[in-house]
Amino acid sequence: xxxxxxxxxxxxxxxxxxxxxxxYCGVGCGVEARVEGGRISKVRGDADHPANFGKLCPKPxxxxxxxxxxxxxxxxxxxxxxxxxxxxxxxxxxxxxxxxLGGAVERRGSRGAAFYISGQLLTEDYYAVNxxxxxxxxxxxxxxxxxxxMASAVAGYRGAFGTDGPPTSYADIxxxxxxxxxxxxxxxxxxxxxxxxxxxxxxxxxxxxxxxxRRTATAELADLHLPLRPGTDLALANAMLxxxxxxxxxDRRYVERHTAGFEGAVEAAGExxxxxxxxxxxxxxxxxxxxxxxxxxxxxxxxxxxxxxNQSTSGTLNNRAIINLHLATGQIGRLGAGxxxxxxxxxxxxxxxxxxxxxxxxxxxxxEDAGHRREVEExxxxxxxxxSPEPGLPATEMFDAVRSGETEVxxxxxxxPAVSMPDLARTKEALRGCGFLVVQDAYxxxxxxxxxxVLPAAQWGEKTGTMTNSERRVSMVEKLxxxxxxxxxxxxxxxxxxxRLGFAGEFAWRxxxxxxxxxxxxxxxxxxxxxxxxxxRLRREPVQWPVxxxxxxxxxxxxxxxxxxxxxxxxxxxxxxxxxxxxxTPDGRARFIPTPHAGLHEPTSEEYPLVLSTGRIxxxxxxxxxxxxxxxxxxxxxxxxxxxxxEAATQAGLDDGDLARVVSARGSYTARAEVTDEMEPGxxxxxxxxxxxWTDGGGVNETTHGAACPTSKQPELKGAAVRVVPAGDTPPAxxxxxx
Length: 739
Hints:
Layout: H1 4-12, E1 17-21, E2 30-36, E3 39-45, H2 63-67, E4 77-79, E5 85-87, H3 90-108, E6 113-117, H4 123-137, E7 142-144, H5 151-161, E8 178-182, H6 186-189, H7 191-200, E9 207-211, E10 224-226, H8 233-246, H9 252-258, E11 259-260, H10 262-269, H11 274-281, H12 285-297, E12 301-305, H13 307-310, H14 315-328, E13 338-341, H15 348-354, E14 360-361, E15 365-366, H16 370-380, H17 395-404, E16 409-413, H18 417-420, H19 424-433, E17 436-441, E18 453-456, E19 465-468, E20 473-477, H20 490-500, H21 512-522, H22 535-540, E21 543-544, H23 553-556, H24 566-569, E22 590-591, E23 610-615, H25 631-634, E24 641-644, H26 646-652, E25 659-663, E26 668-675, E27 683-687, E28 720-726
Parallel strand pairs: 6-7, 6-16, 8-9, 8-12, 9-10, 11-22, 12-13, 16-17, 17-18, 23-27, 24-26
Antiparallel strand pairs: 1-2, 2-3, 4-5, 4-18, 14-15, 19-20, 20-21, 23-28, 24-27, 25-26, 25-28
């Protein structure tokens, strides 16, 4: 199934620049790549792409090095009787994998096999693996690493509006009167978007409120920085809603016409005066009032949030509380206003659209809905009842099922749970004890080193497909060069296994565009309708959904000619949702809910007096699988670090630059101490990038716990109780790019 038509793109543009999309964060920047001698030699920004207008952060510049890394996986590998990995043919690997999957489901039912996939897959890859798991195998045990970053936003949007999806657009930045940046270090994690916010802030009338326990680079932009205590977001949000109500900022007309549940939310919020919230949050009551006034007075307030709000046992309620502020003031569907979750991965949105979480089916359908299952079964050509009505295991529970032996076969694609999952000792135990662990990746990761079967995958620049960014904009990703050795596009691998399971016709795609066309039809008449898109159009312009096909059913069937030329019938895309105040709920109204404060799952104690928050740094990405192989991106790094306040450092007996040991009830890791007053005395921060391939001191997730939001099942990676002590004379490994 090699994509001959797609390979032509690289050949026709040899020596020139080819437009594509960056494979890192959810900003979805357009890039141009130069191809010379069959290799990608340089990447620059695409000046015409509306997500970035030519601007880029440092990470894409390292792509040519990383793609050409000498340690790329190039052939299937199978663990032999000696315990060593040995080359096998694709035919043998795929035959065994299909047999293992089918046997596990036959023996143990739908829990027998599981798939753990990634927001770095293309939408076509997502669609193919969903069809394989949920349609062919009948298991909904398919979840994405988006569970670790975006699940609370999914649950928040769906609960408030009826369906997932941010209602806003990057273009709203230029019209906003106030920015509310909540639990997001946008300057480091989404630098291009932050640049647009900075440009808007040159207007002295525009305000910015930053809510974050750390004084980050983002906080330096703020007119008001609220360094709240970790886990107190809901107390603050409720107090802000109380101020909006008491000071007359509520849009009563909007609330009465377009929402439900307002009185209940206000009653619960009313328990939180600014004074009470200030005591709990560690803030000044007057600053809480100022923040609410800035939000209410602006007329157009745009809220951005990310992991600080999402990675919490109250993650869904944090999202709902922010949305409550917008609903109360009628700031939905208006220029410059709205709740805007910043997506962590390049195609986390496309994965959500394609059904890439254990409760979803393509087109924002739900596995629990009988009508939705029936629609997808008919489209997939599988027997009625093939799709299970029971949601599968979310990632936070999937590894427990592997540990217990309930799940025999685990297939991991394009992600690295041996570093990224919380409570890492339990995850590693599950991976080591898995009956049959399959890892599909472009590089030898920490997870791949534990696998029974390793499948070499084509990565960015080596396969064609689409991605959707944080503002719902669908963009093309082009195949620029051939993948190394025998590496294959992910969708090809999923399709080949589907054929071996007896579904040859259902997986008979010859190229990625055929996968896209099949998925596209499943979005028809859904909130995420993209039937007006094609590869041809996307190569000309990226477009925000919904973007429906404007041809009538009769015209599509060829029963009568279209009356207008194609260009006049083309839907332009949708910059913002809910402009008419109608939502995707049964009665068309958005939903308020009460958001009671709960606090962190794991409180601090005399033994563990500090709260650990994890996050990213600007020049690295996730577990360094790709960025760690670029000298451009690693040469200024000096290994893992932990940032702590001078007061905490003094109590621990540490000076700046000393080796520290961060210890929790679950485990510990070694890092270099960075002493800085950007931290509050009771909190510490550490990036999660370094795993066993990059340091001898362990990873940060050795210390985090696995407690998760009861609704979204997203883990609380921002709230482990720890202590920090001197590490002794054990040196941490410096950054060492593999190969």
